[in-house]
């Protein structure tokens, strides 16, 4: 079974530029999550989708971050404009709809904002 | 505010010994508990899930849960150098928002 796919793996941009990340979840997983992991910290949830609807985006900085999940499969996360403090690893995870919520992570995208 | 606390370490354990990693959580209604292993520069890998009080064993790993004390632990028996990594404790509280709340992780070093 293929895991969660993400691209690109690495991205370096200047502050105030825009950037987009892509995620393809495990086949059959209805729920998709985007997390931000800053060095030395645990992942922090940014947004959760179930199928193509947003379940939770309470921690998404909506003035600069946006995300969509068209057709309930692939998802993109965009940052515009980027700030220095956005330097982090952006992790995508997916899970089945269940009471237990086991989540499986993709390889992540390491973003450096200069 | 849901919180998950872990000792950041580093925790140094000799090869072949038992490594014991601990985690406490603040939300009493939490219902699922996970341990993820994260190697440097890699993404978190799910290694153990536990949902009810007691012990759950999987190979060299044992997860322990005590909901009354709001405490989760991970034991790694016969520790190997390849177990050297950061171990993240994650908690799921259920309800409408299904994101996991993570601790900062414990950095484990297995000394050959």
What does this structure look like?
The complex is a heterodimer of chains A (114) and B (112). Chain A has 114 residues and is an all-beta fold. Chain A contains no helices and eleven strands. The N and C termini of chain A lie far apart (37 Å). In chain B, a hairpin with an 8-residue loop joins strand 9 and strand 10. The chains are: A mainly beta (114), B mainly beta (112). Chains A and B meet through strand 4, strand 5, strand 9 and strand 10 of A and strand 4, strand 5 and strand 9 of B.
Instruction: Report the mean per-residue pLDDT of chain A as an integer.
Output: 95
Number of strands of chain B: 11
Helical percentage of chain B:
under 10%
The major β-sheet of chain B equals: 6 strands, mixed
Calculate Rg of chain A over CA atoms: 13 Å
Q: How many individual β-strands of chain A? A: 11
Q: What is the N-to-C order of secondary-structure elements of chain A (H for helix, E for strand)? A: EEEEEEEEEEE
Protein chain pair with the most extensive contact, residues per chain: A-B, 26 and 25 residues
The computed structural class of chain B is mainly beta
Instruction: Give the oligomeric state.
Output: heterodimer
Low-confidence stretches of chain B: none
What is the chain-wise order of helices and strands of chain B? EEEEEEEEEEE
C-alpha geometry of chain A: globular
Strand content of chain A: over 45%
Write the layout of secondary structure elements.
The complex is a heterodimer of chains A (114) and B (112).
Chain A: E1 5-7, E2 10-13, E3 19-24, E4 31-37, E5 44-50, E6 53-56, E7 65-68, E8 75-79, E9 88-95, E10 104-105, E11 109-113
Parallel strand pairs in A: 2-11
Antiparallel strand pairs in A: 1-3, 3-8, 4-5, 4-9, 5-6, 7-8, 9-10, 9-11
Chain B: E1 4-5, E2 11-14, E3 19-25, E4 32-38, E5 45-50, E6 54-58, E7 61-66, E8 71-76, E9 85-92, E10 101-102, E11 106-111
Parallel strand pairs in B: 2-11
Antiparallel strand pairs in B: 1-3, 3-8, 4-5, 4-9, 6-7, 7-8, 9-10, 9-11
């Amino acid at each position: 079974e293929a895991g969660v796919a993400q691209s690109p793996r690495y991205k370096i941009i200047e502050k105030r530029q825009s950037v987009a990340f892509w995620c393809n979840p495990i086949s059959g997983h209805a729920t998709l999550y985007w997390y931000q992991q800053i060095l030395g910290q645990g992942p922090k949830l940014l947004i959760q989708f179930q199928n193509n609807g947003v379940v939770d985006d309470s921690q998404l900085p909506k003035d600069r971050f946006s995300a969509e999940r068209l057709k309930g499969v692939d998802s993109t996360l965009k940052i515009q404009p980027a700030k220095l403090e956005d330097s982090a690893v952006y992790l995508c995870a997916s899970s089945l709809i269940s009471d237990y919520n086991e989540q499986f992570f993709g390889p992540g995208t390491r973003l450096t904002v200069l | 505010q849901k919180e998950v606390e872990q000792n950041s370490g580093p925790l140094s354990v000799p090869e072949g010994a038992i490594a014991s990693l601990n985690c406490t959580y603040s939300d009493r209604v939490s219902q699922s508990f996970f341990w993820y292993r994260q190697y440097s520069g890699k993404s978190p890998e799910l290694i153990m899930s536990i949902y009810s009080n007691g012990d759950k064993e999987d190979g060299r790993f044992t997860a322990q849960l005590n909901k009354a004390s709001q405490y989760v632990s991970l034991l790694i028996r016969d520790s190997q150098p390849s177990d050297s990594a950061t171990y993240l404790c994650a908690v799921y509280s259920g309800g409408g928002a299904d994101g996991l709340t993570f601790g900062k992780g414990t950095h484990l070093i297995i000394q050959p």
